[in-house]
Amino acid sequence: MSAICLDISDLSAVLPNGQRVLRSVSLAVQPGEVRALVGESGAGKTMIGKAVLGVLPSSVRVVEGDIRLEGEDLGKLQPKARRTLIGARTALIPQDPLTALNPSRRIGSQMTDRLVRILGWSGERADTRIRQLLDEVQIRDPDRVLKSYPHELSGGMRQRVLIAAAFAAEPRLIVADEPTTALDVTVQKQILRLIVQLQREHGTAILFVTHDLGVVAKISQKVSVLYAGKVVEEAETAALFAAPQHPYTRALMAATPRYTEPFASLKPVDEAVLAGLASEIAAADQAWRRPHG
Amino acid sequence: MDEGRAQRRGVSPRLWLAGGWLLLALLAAIFAPLVAPQDPLAQDLMLERLPPFWIDGAEPGYWLGTDSLGRDLLSRLIFGGRIAFIVAFAAAITACLVGSTLGLIAGYFGGWTDRIISRVVDVWMAFPPVLFAILLVAVLGTGLSSVILAIAIIDWTRFCRVIRAETMGQSRMDYVENARIAGYGRIGIMLREVLPNVVPSIVALLSLEMGIAVIVEAILSFVNLSISTDDPTWGGIIAEGRLSIHQAWWVLVFPLITLILTVLSFSQFGEALKTRFDPVLR
């Protein structure tokens, strides 16, 4: 087994019109590490998560680079073998806990189904496992929840169910795609705490996609800052907050609203910095196009 | 929860009214020889154009009166229901199976599959349905199975279009992506994850289609293109009633009421069933 849990190197992806949505992205996640991917909407954070999980939209094409999951190059595997590998070793904690659960199936059957049908567990074992996980995410009435349809549960409950489901098969890597964005502010904190707690107990690596620097500071060990599909800065979380190197990172931090100054107006990211980034990216694209025609 | 459900169940009289009428008509059709007061084919020129029971001159045993050949109208309506229901069930289920399967495939797989199926549906729907039906029956020959086949051939597109759109919507939901990440195969996702979510629409459409099949069968009988002319059909009775409207209005009015009630009940029943089948609306 390779030491590196997830290793993305030089990943580039394009839209049908030739525009690059991922620009030579490289990042490595060590086993048991929480890696935050931070950036504005449209920066390609979710795209990276989808690429790892093998569910890129059909219009997006990977043109360069590779993704290794525990040393296995996903691009070199047959589609079927790739699906099996991704299914067994990864899981997703999605952004919207409502649409991520099938509305016409009971929670219990949705959760055990995957363990039974994909991993070949016995029904009894799957049921025990699911109840154990529901207990870990502090659901106190598992019988009711397992019998419920998704719409009968609150957003926070649904997200707990999805967290339990993600950890149930003991994946090595979980992609958490803005798992708290769709939730109430008061619930966000509990959910974050749960994710961190389960992550520590299970030793699972997490690729945590977010636009919230506050969340980054709380949960991650390392951060990649993304802009326009390009990693502009990568650092240990503590180091990044202590001394951000890239001007964009500094601008992003300056734009974060603070509780200590409740009446200060919201600031956008500094435009001079964005202009600088735009020319940096244009230059990089030009350099990239030349060898790639 | 259970209380709320029971309450909502209580305030759905349309399910009971529509279902009640359909059940009554269906049972009458099934047990027609036992239920019908007279032989529907027996002619008696002494009893021609008897009025319904509440009008002077009515004869006991001929509740809704008789037609110009002295045949009992109620018995003819009951026996006509047999053909109406056979056509409704057989044609609607055939159209549903073909249309829903193609719609599910087109909506879920998209791309070329979808383009081909959708183009066929577009071309198909460009034909005016009733003329298409008459043409088909003329080609296939009259008879029960040709009527059923003609209706199925025309109306599968209804299912295909709606189920395709519903499937496309469902396929974009995150739970489908989740299932893909978990490692399910495409066909498995289509059948186990997506299909249960389009079933409520299929059920509603199926019931609606049964109503439509009843109308189309009546139209075909009306223009004498349905089954053999001996067996009573609702459309056939309406055609006869039209000729004697001034002497015996009841021969036209009662089959019309029967037809309207049945078609309306099918559509209402479908809507109500949809609500019952859908866990979110329930």
Automatic annotation (TrEMBL), chain A:
<keyword id="KW-0067">ATP-binding</keyword>
<dbReference type="InterPro" id="IPR027417">
    <property type="entry name" value="P-loop_NTPase"/>
</dbReference>
<protein>
    <submittedName>
        <fullName>Peptide/nickel transport system ATP-binding protein</fullName>
    </submittedName>
</protein>
<dbReference type="Pfam" id="PF08352">
    <property type="entry name" value="oligo_HPY"/>
</dbReference>
<keyword id="KW-0547">Nucleotide-binding</keyword>
<dbReference type="InterPro" id="IPR017871">
    <property type="entry name" value="ABC_transporter-like_CS"/>
</dbReference>
<keyword id="KW-1003">Cell membrane</keyword>
<keyword id="KW-0813">Transport</keyword>
<comment type="similarity">
    <text>Belongs to the ABC transporter superfamily.</text>
</comment>
<dbReference type="GO" id="GO:0005886">
    <property type="term" value="C:plasma membrane"/>
</dbReference>
<dbReference type="InterPro" id="IPR003593">
    <property type="entry name" value="AAA+_ATPase"/>
</dbReference>
<dbReference type="InterPro" id="IPR013563">
    <property type="entry name" value="Oligopep_ABC_C"/>
</dbReference>
<dbReference type="InterPro" id="IPR050388">
    <property type="entry name" value="ABC_Ni/Peptide_Import"/>
</dbReference>
<dbReference type="GO" id="GO:0005524">
    <property type="term" value="F:ATP binding"/>
</dbReference>
<keyword id="KW-0472">Membrane</keyword>
<feature type="domain" description="ABC transporter">
    <location>
        <begin position="6"/>
        <end position="253"/>
    </location>
</feature>
<dbReference type="GO" id="GO:0016887">
    <property type="term" value="F:ATP hydrolysis activity"/>
</dbReference>
<dbReference type="Pfam" id="PF00005">
    <property type="entry name" value="ABC_tran"/>
</dbReference>
<dbReference type="GO" id="GO:0015833">
    <property type="term" value="P:peptide transport"/>
</dbReference>
<keyword id="KW-1278">Translocase</keyword>
<dbReference type="InterPro" id="IPR003439">
    <property type="entry name" value="ABC_transporter-like_ATP-bd"/>
</dbReference>
<keyword id="KW-0997">Cell inner membrane</keyword>
From TrEMBL, chain B:
<feature type="transmembrane region" description="Helical">
    <location>
        <begin position="202"/>
        <end position="227"/>
    </location>
</feature>
<keyword id="KW-0813">Transport</keyword>
<feature type="transmembrane region" description="Helical">
    <location>
        <begin position="15"/>
        <end position="36"/>
    </location>
</feature>
<comment type="similarity">
    <text>Belongs to the binding-protein-dependent transport system permease family.</text>
</comment>
<keyword id="KW-1133">Transmembrane helix</keyword>
<dbReference type="InterPro" id="IPR025966">
    <property type="entry name" value="OppC_N"/>
</dbReference>
<dbReference type="Pfam" id="PF00528">
    <property type="entry name" value="BPD_transp_1"/>
</dbReference>
<dbReference type="GO" id="GO:0015833">
    <property type="term" value="P:peptide transport"/>
</dbReference>
<dbReference type="InterPro" id="IPR000515">
    <property type="entry name" value="MetI-like"/>
</dbReference>
<dbReference type="Pfam" id="PF12911">
    <property type="entry name" value="OppC_N"/>
</dbReference>
<keyword id="KW-0571">Peptide transport</keyword>
<feature type="domain" description="ABC transmembrane type-1">
    <location>
        <begin position="81"/>
        <end position="270"/>
    </location>
</feature>
<keyword id="KW-1003">Cell membrane</keyword>
<dbReference type="InterPro" id="IPR050366">
    <property type="entry name" value="BP-dependent_transpt_permease"/>
</dbReference>
<keyword id="KW-0472">Membrane</keyword>
<feature type="transmembrane region" description="Helical">
    <location>
        <begin position="83"/>
        <end position="110"/>
    </location>
</feature>
<keyword id="KW-0653">Protein transport</keyword>
<keyword id="KW-0812">Transmembrane</keyword>
<dbReference type="GO" id="GO:0055085">
    <property type="term" value="P:transmembrane transport"/>
</dbReference>
<feature type="transmembrane region" description="Helical">
    <location>
        <begin position="247"/>
        <end position="266"/>
    </location>
</feature>
<dbReference type="InterPro" id="IPR035906">
    <property type="entry name" value="MetI-like_sf"/>
</dbReference>
<protein>
    <submittedName>
        <fullName>Peptide/nickel transport system permease protein</fullName>
    </submittedName>
</protein>
